[in-house]
Design brief:
Chains: A mainly alpha (about 350), B mainly alpha (about 290), C alpha/beta (about 240)
Number of domains of chain B: 1
Largest sheet of chain A: 2 strands, antiparallel
Radius of gyration of chain A: 21 Å
Number of helices of chain A: 13
Helix content of chain B: over 70%
Shape of chain B: globular
Number of strands of chain A: 4
Distance between the termini of chain B: 37 Å
Strand order of the largest sheet of chain B: 1-2
Order of helices and strands of chain A: HHHHHEEEEHHHHHHHH
Oligomer: heterotrimer
Strand content of chain A: under 5%
Radius of gyration of chain B: 19 Å
């Protein structure tokens, strides 16, 4: 029965996603569609962290590393090769390979969870410092000047694969990015329902037991970490397509903190929660960004502290549990009635 | 020859900088097993304390060496009582909460001071190593770093407070048996760590651009040093600072600062792979 | 020269933690489909010895062989794949998963989906866990969580099963059922069982190895062991005191 309800939820989310995919271009203005693309980027980014933290049990405090590497790899490849399809490929592959290397050092070094948080955070800070200090013409990769703290202006937006002259409209970019979000969500759901996903969750629950049942926890963690980095990189590619420019702030601690807050607010241990958290909070931050009295970091900080103290498991699980309790109570009542009336 | 002298001097002041930026973090982590992600912002508050005090006409030495540890120590005390103490034993939650504090402090200082870079003029002047000019202020940094290490050692080894601290860290119940509530010990330790971070911010204020986001520039190095150093606060911080400070300065000097940072990171990651417990987790186990 | 290779052969295994020697020069040989009980007072080194067998601890000295293959220093997951399953002293289960999922994680390794499912159902039925199959293991009673853990071990179909205090915290009926189960398992698989409960030992045991202070005190048939004065001194005498 749980099996059926879980899949019903999955189908419902897919249908809702498809409705959003086709409805948005009909009802939202062109400017609005461009704005919606950044929500998709943030939702994808939140999904990467939600999978890693909520299911893999791995706390990455520097998820912005992979977002930024994806965004920069996309930009640099697209500028050099022209065709943005290669950019998308690089935007996924570069962070994934980086995560594979970094993850090997961390997981095969049997580093504790807290250290993993610190190391990932440190790496993101160092990447920020590195990219930030590449001002000047001597720092370039092919034709792409890295531009230091000014970043790379005029990053090419998506074109039809193989046809550089056929550049997608903002609506086209919307379709591509939203479709990618739906596909990644579906793939993650399927992966989690597979034997691989079961082992990943089992390791989160009890690493020792998983090892004693014959599973190499290090390998599974490394794979989860790499998958998560690839998804974050994809989010970086979409992010590029929203603004058409990229700067080192994408590696900033605020970006790594934001995604943790997306997941915390949306709900740990779900996939739809982080997506909703990402979209919702990005919307709130956009609103907050229009006023200049209070710095938005203050709001982020207050939300983070409040969530850790008050609702550490997140909004979606809390709502789900409440709904479940209601359901069970009603079910129990029905059962009692059945018992008393033979 | 002159170049060697200059390099040696730079390496020395680089090491001293590592010691300063790490010690506050190291005290809190080593004693309490708390990773304080607001450490960089504690330093930032220390630097702003110096800026504000100098602006108000306070003597520069008092503004750098006395006020920052007092102000930031007080901030640490208040935070410990209001937030941190509810999260003892929950390591990940503690990291998230201190990160929240970090963002909050950045937000508050951006709101008050604006997102601009300020500076404080360094006292003292320069001197020459042969044909090369060097800053006399670097001597101050080196001296303060040494004073901090020696002072902390004396505090832990020679005072009753230090004894209680060490006992409490070994075994909280033992401290309770000595008639001291562990809660008070934790409070004092967190305050001490915050004060040290504040001092670092104050001392480094003249040589850094002071902005609400400046903390991020330091925490990467501070974290690497604490993790690399391992459980012993003073020996660990000292040894790791020597290694990392030297690597960073030498590569920066020979090549450029970007490569200096890269080599530091690569070295640190490999070292943590080989020595996950840090240097003092494997060697010099019984040091402080 | 065709000597019979034993299933498990531990030679001069020593485990030291700093200055403490928890396991001191222990040798133990176990044949195929043998049932062995380990007894000994608390702190005698039984659980530590188990951990060296599963790869959770790397012995300071000595070698461990499975069917002649040296497995000393291998990781727990590698040893598990060679056919060793363990139920640890404290229930070691996936608390956030259902009983069904717990067993499925164990059963799916090396099996097709259909075979894994059949295995889970068979194992749950064998341990009478069907009524709680869909419940989260973290919410089950202590005894039931022990059963779930035993189920995960059995679902791997290991050749060697290590059970660390399988009857602890169980009711009298559950203890009897556990004894029955152990005998049933022993028809096809070898077991090493650590237990304190002497009655339980009498129910199942043939050969008993006695641990004391990290060493093997004696190894003999259960009747001889229980009649031995030294065993009474270190074990029963202590319990009486």
């Amino acid at each position: 029965m749980k099996f059926n309800s879980a899949w019903a939820g999955f189908i419902a989310v897919l249908i809702a996603g498809l409705v959003v995919l086709f409805a948005v271009p009909q009802i939202v203005s062109l400017f609005g569609i461009v704005q919606m693309t950044v929500f998709v980027a943030m939702a994808m980014y939140a999904l990467s962290q939600g999978f890693l933290w909520g299911f893999g049990g791995i706390m990455c405090f520097g998820q912005a590393s992979f977002l930024g590497l994806g965004a920069y790899a996309y930009a640099i490849t697209a500028i050099n090769l022209g065709d943005t399809s290669w950019g998308m490929l690089a935007g996924v592959a570069v962070p994934a390979i980086f995560a594979l290397l970094l993850g090997y050092f961390m997981f095969y070094g049997r580093i504790s969870d807290a250290y993993i948080g610190v190391i990932t955070l440190t790496v993101s800070v160092i990447l920020f410092q590195l990219i930030n200090s590449t001002s000047g013409a001597q720092y370039h990769i092919g034709q792409a000047e890295l531009g230091g703290f000014n970043g790379i202006p005029s990053v090419p937006t998506l074109n039809m694969p193989g046809d550089v002259s056929n550049v997608l409209s903002p609506t086209g970019i919307w379709y591509v990015s939203m479709a990618l979000l739906i596909i990644v969500y579906a793939l993650l759901r399927l992966a989690l329902a597979s034997r691989f996903g079961r082992v990943v969750v089992a390791i989160r629950e009890n690493e020792t037991r998983a090892m004693l049942l014959g599973y190499d926890a290090r390998l599974y963690k490394l794979l989860s970490f790499t998958i998560s980095a690839a998804i974050a990189g994809l989010a970086g590619c979409i992010y590029d397509n929203w603004g058409g420019f990229i700067s080192p702030t994408i590696f900033g601690l605020a970006m790594s903190a934001e995604v943790i807050i997306f997941v915390l607010v949306g709900g740990l241990g779900t996939l739809i929660g982080p997506i909703l958290g990402g979209v919702g909070l990005q919307y709130v931050m956009n609103l907050a960004g229009t006023q200049h009295k209070v710095d938005p970091n203050l709001g982020l900080g207050v939300v983070l502290v409040a969530f850790v103290l008050l609702v550490p498991q997140g909004v979606v699980p809390v709502i789900r549990d409440k709904a479940m309790q209601l359901f069970i109570r009603r079910g129990a009542k029905a059962a009692r009635i059945q018992e008393t009336s033979p | 020859m002159d170049l060697t002298g200059l390099l040696a001097f730079n390496v020395l002041s680089g090491i001293a900088t590592f010691v300063l930026i790490t010690l506050g973090l190291g005290v809190i982590y080593g004693m309490m097993r708390i990773i304080n992600l607001a450490h960089g912002e504690f330093m930032m508050l220390g630097a702003y304390t110096t800026v504000s005090a100098v602006g108000a006409g306070v003597n520069i030495w008092i503004a750098m060496l006395v006020l920052p540890p007092l102000v930031v120590g007080l901030v640490g005390l208040v935070l410990e009582r209001a937030l941190i103490r509810f999260l003892y034993g929950r390591m990940m939650d503690m990291m998230l909460a201190t990160w929240g504090v970090s963002l909050g402090l950045i937000g508050i200082s951006s709101t008050i001071y604006g997102n601009v870079v300020r500076g404080v003029t360094a006292p003292l002047g320069g001197f020459n190593i042969g044909r090369y000019g060097a800053s006399l202020y670097s001597f101050v940094i080196i001296l303060v770093a040494i004073a901090c290490l020696v002072g902390l050692y004396a505090l832990l080894r020679l005072t009753k407070f230090g004894l209680i601290l060490r006992a409490a860290m070994q075994n909280p119940r033992m401290a309770a048996a000595l008639g001291i509530s562990p809660s008070i010990v934790y409070m004092a330790t967190f305050t001490l760590g915050a004060a040290l971070a504040g001092l670092a911010g104050g001392v480094l204020a003249p040589i850094s651009g002071i902005s609400p986001n400046m903390g991020a520039a330091y925490i990467a190095n501070a974290f690497i040093t604490v993790l690399g150093g391992g459980p012993a606060i003073i020996a660990g911080t000292g040894i790791a600072s020597v290694i990392f400070g030297a690597i960073n300065q030498i590569v920066s000097f020979v090549a450029n600062p970007v490569l200096g940072t890269v080599s530091l990171l690569v070295f640190a990651v490999i070292m943590i792979r080989i020595l996950p417990q840090g240097i003092t987790g494997r060697f010099f186990r019984n040091s402080l | 020269m065709s000597e019979i290779v034993p299933l498990l052969e531990a030679r001069n295994v020593t485990m030291r933690f700093g200055g403490v020697t928890a396991v001191d020069d222990v040798s133990l040989v176990l044949g195929e489909v043998e049932l062995r009980c380990l007894i000994g007072p608390n702190g005698a080194g039984k659980s530590t010895f188990f951990k060296t067998l599963t790869g959770q601890l790397n012995p300071t000295e000595g070698r461990i062989k499975l069917r002649g293959q040296d497995v000393t220093g291998l990781l727990p997951n590698q040893i598990a794949r060679l056919g060793v399953g363990i139920k640890t002293q404290i229930p070691n289960v996936f608390n956030g998963l259902t009983a069904y999922e717990n067993v499925l994680v164990a059963a799916q390794r090396g099996r097709s989906a259909a075979m894994a499912k059949a295995m889970v159902e068979k194992t749950l039925a064998r341990l009478r866990l069907e009524p709680v199959a869909r419940r989260q293991v973290g919410q089950l009673a202590h005894g039931q969580r022990q059963w779930v853990e035993i189920a995960t071990v059995l679902a791997q179909e290991p050749d060697l099963i290590l059970l660390d205090e399988p009857a602890a915290g169980m009711t009298h009926e559950e203890v009897e059922r556990t004894a029955e189960l152990i005998k049933e398992i022993n028809r096809t698989q070898a077991l090493v069982v650590v237990e304190h409960d002497m009655q339980f030992i009498r129910m199942i045991a043939q050969t008993v190895t006695v641990f004391n202070q990290g060493k093997v005190l004696m190894e003999d048939h259960v009747d001889a062991v229980l009649a031995d004065q030294r065993v009474r001194d270190v074990y029963i005498g202590k319990a009486a005191a």
